Amino acid sequence: MIRAIAVDDEPKALDVIENHAARISFLHLLDVFTNPFAGIEYLHKNSVDLIFLDIHMPDLSGLEFIKASNIRAQVIFTTAHSDYALQSYDVDAADYLLKPFDFSRFLKAVTKAQHRLSSVGARVADFFFVSSGNQQRRISLAEIQFIEGNGNYVTYHVNTEKILVRSTVKEALSSLPPHIFVQTHKSYIISLKHLDKIQDNHAFISAQRIPIGASYREALMKVTGR
Fold this sequence. Notes:
Helix content is 32%, strand content 35%. By secondary structure, the chain is α/β, with parallel strands linked by helices. It folds into two domains: 2-123, Rossmann fold (3-Layer(aba) Sandwich), CATH 3.40.50.2300; 127-223, CATH 2.40.50.1020. The strands form four sheets. A five-stranded parallel sheet has the order 2-1-3-4-5, sandwiched between helices. Strands 10-9-8-12-11 form a five-stranded antiparallel sheet. A three-stranded antiparallel sheet has the order 13-14-15, with no helix packed on it.
């Protein structure tokens, strides 16, 4: 499932994207934004795979949006101005949709992004190394149950132990596959593979009860299909 958001200062343009997205079974449009700064704030708290981004907005251009948000997602630019096409290739966008676009063209763009995401996923190792104290520790993605932050440090709770690393929660999240790891609170990231249940304002992994912050709840509910 591709998790996406759309950013466009024109509400009618967002309506078109929402209608097209609803017809694609492997695409989940998490949210839409007419205010690009609200979109950036969302990306600082949530991971997505794909962004539909208007390249020409009055307050912040699509190119400025990419720089400000420091995103790692695929981007499909949408605009009524054909003269911006060259700039979209400069930032390695997955595709460039010239308004008005129909469903078949939209589907083609999403499929291109899907192929890119699949290619990237195929190259991602199932483990990585972190510096813990004076050691380089190997951590398997499959064994990470959740990550707990405390200031400039995070603790990786893996199947058999806890590994303390000098890092922020945001930095830890940026290095993890977004289709597996989700932030539930300003201090917590969970692995969906280890998630047992969600009850009230908590996520449960084994016997551990992990808080779900109000600003993260909606995104978590959407990604878990609730």
